[in-house]
Amino acid sequence: MQGQTKTTLMSGMRPTGELHLGNYLGALENWVQLQNEYYCYFSIVDWHALTTAYKETDKLEERIFDMACDWLAAGLDPDKCAIFRQSHIKEIAELHLLFSMVIPLSWLERVPTYKDQLQQLKEKEINTYGFLGYPLLQAADILICQAEVIPVGEDQVPHIELTREVGRRFNHLYNTEVFNDPIAKLTENKVLPGLDNRKMSKSYNNYIRLTASPDEVIQKVRSMVTDPNRVRKNDPGNPDVCSAYAYHKIFNASNAVETEQSCKQGSIGCMDCKKALAIQLTELIQPIYEKKQELKNNPDYVYDVLADGAEKTRIVANETMEKVRKIMGI
Q: Name one GO molecular function term (predicted).
């Protein structure tokens, strides 16, 4: 943004479904803090959603609106950051196209997640350029807004390194310094299991929505899997195999040690343990839930936020593309 002096940070999420507590811990909670330290661009990356779900676009618009509501309800402030929809910045697509002319195919094929995802999602028919090239599109997302810092988990570090290589190659080919060298900012890895102690997955429906109602939170907590060997209330339990205790450690940390000891001693039953957890989760989620209901009833405001964020982003995107076009003779 013109006149801003803070270091620039960029990140995004794919609108592939409703956000849950795992998404909050993995990114959104961190973003809410980072907006106070950096000038942030936060993108709802709808083009990225098409890389694995190009056949499933009927609910895309609804999911984009829902994600914007979740972000705002969780605490992102449009006065502190630019919140926008990726496809509203056409310059990103242009930069991605130009990058595709100069980046060797082998660079994309060696991205660690590429072959893994092809195997894991083979039923999706994603052997397309869009899927192969999504790290290049990600590089365009980052470099077009001159981002300097990218908050990521360890699994995304290779993508940021590719982004750095893309910028360096462009600068070298055209003897310029139009692109900077963004760095990965590793986020704390808070692993949240599913309610059934399996990996959290939308296909398993073993998660708690970020904007769940208080009644829904209680119902979800009640369904949590606890120690299967604990038959009676006073039996000693094993917290290490209990999904409820995994949530206590994160969301009720001040009482986690006491909860662990009480479980092992058999002095607290599983239902009482879950009741205490439900109280903690409701205190966290209820304000977000209530704020989202307000936002859903005021869609004009939400779309104005996205439009304003796109306008802010378009300023730097246009500046970047003017330089790129001139350098490439376009």
A: ATP binding
Predicted TM-score of the model (pTM): 0.93
Structural domain count of the chain: 2
End-to-end CA distance of the chain: 25
3 state SS of 11 = strand
| CA-closest candidate to residue 39, choices 79, 12, 84 | 79
pLDDT computed for residue 229 by the predictor? 86
Mean pLDDT value across residues 217-231: 91
Residue 322 lies inside a defined structural domain of this protein: yes
Q: Which residue pairs from 306-310 have beta carbons closer than 8 angstroms and sit at least 24 positions apart in sequence?
A: 306/44, 306/68, 306/83, 306/84, 306/85, 306/88, 307/88, 308/78, 308/82, 309/41, 309/42, 309/78, 309/81, 309/82, 309/83, 309/84, 310/82, 310/84, 310/85, 310/88, 310/89
Its domain, for residue 45, covers 8-192+299-328
| Residue 252 token pair | 């009720």
Q: Does residue 177 share a domain with residue 232?
A: no
171 & 231 share domain: no
d(CA 150, CA 303) in angstroms, rounded, equals: 25
Same structural domain for residues 115 and 158?
yes
Same domain, 230 and 262: yes
